[in-house]
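Researcher: Please predict.
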Amino acid sequence: MTESSKSNEDFAILPISIPPLPSYPVQATHYLYLRRNTPKIVTPDDSRSLFLANVPSDSTEAHFRALFAHIVGAGRFESIIFEHDKKASRASHEPAQAEKLAKHQKKRKREEEEVQAREEEAAAQLPDTWTRQIHQSGSSAIALFADEKSAETVLKAVKKLNKSRKYPVWGDGVKDKVPPLGSQWLKAHNKLSYPGNDVVQEAIDTYFTIFNKKEHEATLLAKRLRNEPDEDGFVTVTRGGRNAPASRNEAEEARQKMLARQQKKKDSMQDFYRFQLREKRKAEQAELLKRFDEDKRKVQAMKEKRGKFQPER
């Protein structure tokens, strides 16, 4: 970015010195933009995190750990989430019913079961084919610090650096902590792209084991929902009978009906029995009729009184 980009007052600007490389033997300056993290969806860690814009394309957590240690000392930087990592976390390869099913489980899974599920899902993923992720130009990241004071200290230190013009050197002290780029990076990618048939087959088998397990749980859920009577006491018989396997659409439809029934029951818990609801409605109607008659009599009395009124001469 050029010097004209510095006009944005919302960001603190951190110039970074890029050392010469064999591919580009010229010293350069890269501008990193920092500000308080203010996402649309508030999280408990927002006060101790900073939003970073225009991160270098070869950025890693080790690079930023060394960078912030140079600026404010070690122990303040905690972790970083790059833009690519946020997009990847949103993408889900689970069956369509898995997330929906998890929302309607009344009891939380035990900690051991959760750990086992995470391990199985990790085993179902194909191995990475790149030793390092290269980011797009101008991408962003969220840096998390130890506390709110540490994040504020970083912003103040960045302003001081602009006055002193002693810019930190990018990649200083991290060459041995991250995999190299260049030809070695491409050779490693070519090797990782062919993990072997046994590795791929094991990942596929694990994936479909988890998939079939969750589909079976979704089928049982849909079956249970279809056998539950509605508010009038009737059970809807679907195609294939009430005990037939459920499709995803049928399971979702049954789930929506169950949620609607639960909400209606929650709203009417004060009158548990149906006859009580009927009696309550009758009482409300009688009360409305009574008020209507009273208002009617008041209006009639006002009309009669107005008719008897004689103005003074």
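Model: The chain has nine helices and five strands.
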